[in-house]
Write a structure and sequence with these properties.
Elements: H1 9-21, E1 27-28, H2 43-55, H3 61-77, H4 84-96, H5 101-120, E2 123-124, H6 127-130, E3 132-133, H7 141-152, E4 158-159, E5 164-167, E6 172-174, H8 180-188
Helix pairs in contact: 2-3, 2-5, 3-4, 4-5
Length: about 190
């Protein structure tokens, strides 16, 4: 599901309704929340801004509060149990602590995955565990299929955030914009 499909709590409700129409669906690959209205900002864009501000030694709080409020609103409106506040604190600390641009951008999908997994009652599988990139930043298809197959072999309904994965050393790498579609293709090819 793309960013506009997960922009707010009402969109989350629509996603669940769609999934309930076909109960054999086992996997969901979410993007980060997109625009709720034309003048709104996409979460991924806000994360890039936060990274750039931190890299320039400037404060990120004014931008990060927009991200925080978006996720907290969704969690509160849907009465979720996941500790999204702690996850948001960890993301804010990572950005301020100098995490790379890809790590910062990937947190939109990561946080959205935590929320939608809780909302659906599905398992959360972090893409860093299943999507593997080579040291040169290209996707390692063979290793990815091996890892994803192992993680999802029990066929339990699972949420695997789109757009990112990791190198063998754990460094987060993102696909180009729209990369959640690539993750979705990798997951459904199992």
């Amino acid at each position: 599901f793309g960013g506009s499909s997960l922009a707010d709590d009402e969109q989350f409700r629509k996603v669940r309704s769609i999934l309930e129409l076909e109960p054999t669906r086992q996997y969901l690959v979410p993007s980060a929340p997109g625009k709720r209205f034309p003048s709104d900002e996409k979460v991924t864009d806000l994360l890039y801004i936060c990274h750039d501000l931190a890299a320039a030694g400037r404060p990120v709080e004014d931008q990060f509060i927009k991200i925080r409020e978006r996720y907290l609103s969704i969690a509160q409106q849907l009465h979720l149990r996941v500790d999204i506040e702690t996850a948001l604190d960890e993301v804010a600390a990572g950005i301020a602590g100098g995490q790379n641009r890809d790590w910062c951008a990937s947190r939109g999908e990561y946080l959205c995955g935590l929320l939608i997994a809780d909302y659906l009652g599905w398992r959360f599988v972090d893409a860093v565990e299943g999507v593997r990139f080579r040291d040169d930043g290209t996707l390692d298809d063979e290793k990815t299929q091996e890892l994803l197959s192992g993680l999802l072999k029990d066929r339990k309904p699972s949420v695997v955030p789109g757009f990112y994965g990791a190198k063998e050393n754990g460094e987060v790498v993102t696909f180009s914009r729209g990369g959640s579609d690539i993750t979705g293709a990798l997951v459904i090819s199992l």
